[in-house]
Amino acid sequence: MSSTSRRADGPGAVSMSLDALLHASRALAPEARLVGPPGSGRTGVHGVTLDSGDVEPGDLFAGLPGKLRHGADHAGEAAAAGAVALLSDRSVSCLPTLVVDHPRRVLGFLAARLYGDPSRALSVYGVTGTNGKTSTAHLLAAGLEAAGHRIGLAGSLETRVPDRSCRPAVRTTAEAPAVQRLLARTRQAGGTDAVLEVSSHALALSRVDGTRFRVAVFTNLSPDHLDLHGDLEQYYAAKASLFTPDRCAHAVVNVGDPHGRRLAAETRCPLTTFTSGPEPADWSAADIHADVDGTRFRLRGAGVDREVRLLLLGPHQADNVVAAAAALAAGGADVAAALRGMEQLASVPGRLERVDVGQPFLAFVDFAHNTGGQHRLLPFLRSLTRGRVIVVLGATGERDPEKRAALGDTAARDADLLIVTDESAHSEDPAELRTAVADGARRSGQAEVHVEPDRRDAFSLAVSAARPGDVLVVAGRGADQRQTSTRGSRPFDDRIALRAALLQHAAPRPSAERPPRQAVLDTSAPPTRDDDDPRPTVEDPA
Ligand SMILES: CC(=O)N[C@H]1[C@@H](OP(=O)(O)OP(=O)(O)OC[C@H]2O[C@@H](n3ccc(=O)[nH]c3=O)[C@H](O)[C@@H]2O)O[C@H](CO)[C@@H](O)[C@@H]1O[C@H](C)C(=O)N[C@@H](C)C(=O)N[C@H](CCC(=O)O)C(=O)O
Ligand SMILES: Nc1ncnc2c1ncn2[C@@H]1O[C@H](COP(=O)(O)OP(=O)(O)OP(=O)(O)O)[C@@H](O)[C@H]1O
C-alpha cells in the first residue's frame, strides 16, 4: 500500500496471494473455496476492508451479510475503487471471490495475516465488561507509559499509536481490519504494547478475532445491550468468550462481581483475581475514601501494599485501578512505576468530569448510561452533599428499549430532582424515549420529575433549580460530541453546554445586581444543609 493511504490509520499490510488466503481460511472454514477465472489464486492482496467506501487499490473487500443490506451488493463499487477480490458467503461476477459460510468469522484472522499478525509482536491488553472499560484502558495506558512502554490505544474515546496524535474513536471496538491496522501501526512505530477496549458487540461480531491478548480484563456485568444479545446469559457468554486459552494468555477477573466470580470459576486461562470488596482475591482495594478532590485507597497485591491517591473521582475508579494494576502485574510491567502514572491521570473525558465556573454547587458530566453505572455513580454523588442530587438524563434511540424505564427508575430512587431530556434519538421518536424514561422515574414515586425536550433548556432548568450545596449531574452521554435525530446531527458536548448554562444562570457575579434566576422550578425553599460544608469526605458508599 502506498504512503498516501486514505486510511487515517495508514499502511502496514504485507502482500499475500488469494491462494495463500484461501489456504489460511481453510483452517477455520474447511468449506472455503475460490470462485473466479483461472489464475485468480495468484492475485496479490495488499489490504482488507469491509466497507466499499473505504476500499483502496489492492484490497480484499469483505462483503458481509448485515442487518440492513448485504455487503456483496456493493462489490461493484468496491471493484471500481480497486478491490482485487471479495470475501463473502456469495460469489459475484465482477471479482474473484473467496466463498465461506460465515465471512465475519474468517475476516479477523485474514486481516491479522495480511497485517503481519501484529498482536503476536506486542503485549495486547484487552478490557471488557459493562462498565469501566474506558477508564481502565486509560489507566492502563497511563501506567504503561509511566513505566516506559510505547503504546497503541483504541477505545470509546480515542485511537492512538505511539508518537502520533489521537483520533476520535468511531466506536468502542473497531471492525477487525481497523483493529489489525492499528496494531500493525503500533508495531511499526516501535510500540511495545496495545490497550484495546473490547465491547460485547466486538466479541459477538468477531471484531477481535485474530488478536492474541497477553492479558484480558473483566470489569463487571450488568444489564445492557440486550437488544443485541437477547438476554443476560448470552451477554455474559459474549464477554466470557474473550477468556479462552486460544485468545488470551492471562485472565484478570473481578471477583467482586457475581458474573466475575462465575467467569473466574469457568475460565481455563491462567487467572488473577481482583476486588474492591471483602472477597479473597489476588489484588484488592480497601479503605476506599472518595470525595470531590479525588479517591484514595489501600492497594494490595503481589509485592504491593501501598496507599493510592487518585485525581479521578468516584469509588469505582478504585476498582478500575486495581484491575489495571493486576493486569500490568500479569503482563510483566513495572507496577510501582505504572501506579505513579495512574495517580497523575487528571481525568478520563466525560467520566465524572467536574464543570466549575464558581457556582455554589457541584456539577458533573458522567457517562453512566446503564443501571450498573448509576448504582455506582448516584450513591457517590449523594455522599457529596447534604443537599439535593439533581440528575439530567435521557435515553439513546435505536438501543436497548428495555433499559429506558429502568434508567428512569434507578435515577429517581437515588436522586431528588430528575430532568428527563433528549439524547440522540436517531431514527426514533424522541417523545417516546422521554416518556419511557419519565414513566420509569415516576413509577418509583420518589424524585420530583420534569420533562424538558430541549437539551440546552434542560441544563438551564437543572442549573436554575440547584441550590447552594446541591450536586448536579448530567448523566448518560459523557464526552459524546454529537446529538443525532431525524432532524439531523448537531455538535453537542455536554461539558460545554453545561458550562454555558452555569455561566448564564449560576456563576457568581461581581455586581450586587445579580439578575433574578430564571427559575422554572420552585427554588424558594431554603437549603437543607449547611452551605459552608457542602462536600463531606465519606467512606466508599458503593
Ligand atoms: C449491531 C452492529 O454492531 N452492527 C454493525 C454491523 O452492521 P450491519 O451488519 O447491520 O451492517 P449493514 O449496515 O447492514 O451493512 C452490511 C455490510 O455492508 C457494508 N456496506 C454497507 C453500505 C455500503 O455502502 N457499503 C458497504 O460496504 C457494511 O460495511 C457492512 O459490512 O456492521 C457494520 C459494518 O461494520 C457496523 O457499522 C455496524 O455497527 C453499527 C454502526 C453500530 O452502531 N454498532 C454499535 C452498536 C456498536 O458496535 N457498539 C459497540 C458497543 C458500544 C458500547 O459498549 O456502548 C462498539 O463496540 O462500539
Ligand atoms: N468499575 C466500574 N464499575 C461500575 N461503574 C463504573 C465503573 N467504572 C466506571 N463506571 C461508570 O460507568 C460509566 C462509563 O465508564 P467507562 O466509560 O469507563 O466504561 P465503559 O465500559 O467504557 O463504557 P462504554 O462501553 O459505554 O464506553 C462511568 O461514567 C461511571 O459512571
From TrEMBL:
InterPro entries, A to Z: Mur-like_cat_sf, Mur_ligase_C, Mur_ligase_C_dom_sf, Mur_ligase_cen, Mur_ligase_N, MurE/MurF_N, UDP-N-AcMur-Glu-dNH2Pim_ligase
The places in or outside the cell where this protein is found are:
Cytoplasm
Post-translational modification here is noted as: Carboxylation is probably crucial for Mg(2+) binding and, consequently, for the gamma-phosphate positioning of ATP.
- Which coarse location class describes where this protein primarily resides? cytoplasm
Q: Which cofactor does it need?
A: Mg(2+)
GO CC, any one term: cytoplasm
Protein's UniProt keywords contain DNA damage: no
Q: Compositional bias (Basic and acidic residues) spans?
A: 528-542
Enzyme Commission code: 6.3.2.-
Q: In which pathway does it act?
A: Cell wall biogenesis; peptidoglycan biosynthesis
Which part of the chain is the Mur ligase C-terminal domain?
350-478
Residues with the N6-carboxylysine modification = 239
- Looking at the record, the residues that make up the Mur ligase central domain are 127-327
Report the NCBIfam families cross-referenced here: murE
Give the PANTHER family listed for this entry.
MUR LIGASE FAMILY MEMBER, UDP-N-ACETYLMURAMOYL-L-ALANYL-D-GLUTAMATE--2,6-DIAMINOPIMELATE LIGASE MURE HOMOLOG, CHLOROPLASTIC
What HAMAP family does the annotation carry?
A: MurE (MF_00208)
The family line of this record is: Belongs to the MurCDEF family. MurE subfamily.
User: What protein name applies here?
Assistant: UDP-N-acetylmuramyl-tripeptide synthetase
| Species name | Streptomyces reniochalinae
What are the top taxonomic ranks of the organism?
Answer: Bacteria, Bacillati, Actinomycetota, Actinomycetes, Kitasatosporales
